[in-house]
Amino acid sequence: MKVLIIEDDPGIVETISLTFQIRWPETELVSTHSGEKGVVMVEAENPDMVILDLGLTDINGFEVLKQIRLFSAVPVLILTVRADESDIVKGLEWGADDYMIKPFRQLELMSRVKALTRRRSSLPEETPLVYGQFHFYPSTGQLRHGDKEIALTTTEGRIFHKLIENAGRVVTYGDLAESLWGDKYPGTDASIQVHVHRLRAKIEVDPAKPQIILTKSGIGYTMVKPV
Asked: Cis peptide leading into 210, omega within 30 of 0?
């Protein structure tokens, strides 16, 4: 397990490192204060996840996220003081898997990190879940539609997995939060809505008029059973 921390505040890096030393000591931590170097390290270090600050001194953290998503689906957890709803939505829409506000609680941070890096090994890679023309491989998070491969983030893959397993039944926000983060935290419903919006944009013919993932207002979502 390797975690890359892209953070320009040494105090925050020290706090995160101490949290891992106490609660997940076998984790290898690498860090940089530079957003530009962080992008390079994602490719060079091949981390299992990235913890990313938005207020970096060289380039904006959103730009770092955007560059990472050009070549990698590594889970990214944004950890920032920026609590505006517009920033949260932007971070999730640009491909972050989770978003936390500083100051953070150590137990919640570790819970979210472990949820993002949890290995999905219950089904072998050679046995995909099939939904119409979609083939989803739970062990890798890979989604194919015919000969086309669709790039999903870790969180999008987990949502698709949960919905396809329960096709024809309603999956509540609580069920999805439990699957994604192990618990329901403040703001998780809004985060799930953003992830589902991104997922629809990748799999629906017309995301504005979804035919695959339907909203059950105030409750959650249901995936229509394929004909």
From this structure: no
Q: Which CATH number fits domain 2-117: 3.40.50.1000, 3.40.50.2300, 3.30.365.10, 1.10.287.990?
A: 3.40.50.2300
In CATH terms, the fold of domain 129-223 is Arc Repressor Mutant, subunit A (1.10.10)
pLDDT score for 27: 94
Of 54, 39, 48, the C-alpha closest to 20 is 48
| pLDDT at residue 126 greater than cutoff 60 | no
The tens digit of pLDDT for each residue in 41-83 reads 999 999 999 999 999 999 999 999 999 998 888 999 999 999 9
Cα-based torsion angle of the residue sequence 208, 211, 212, 213 in order, rounded to the nearest 10 degrees: 50
Predicted model pTM: 0.70
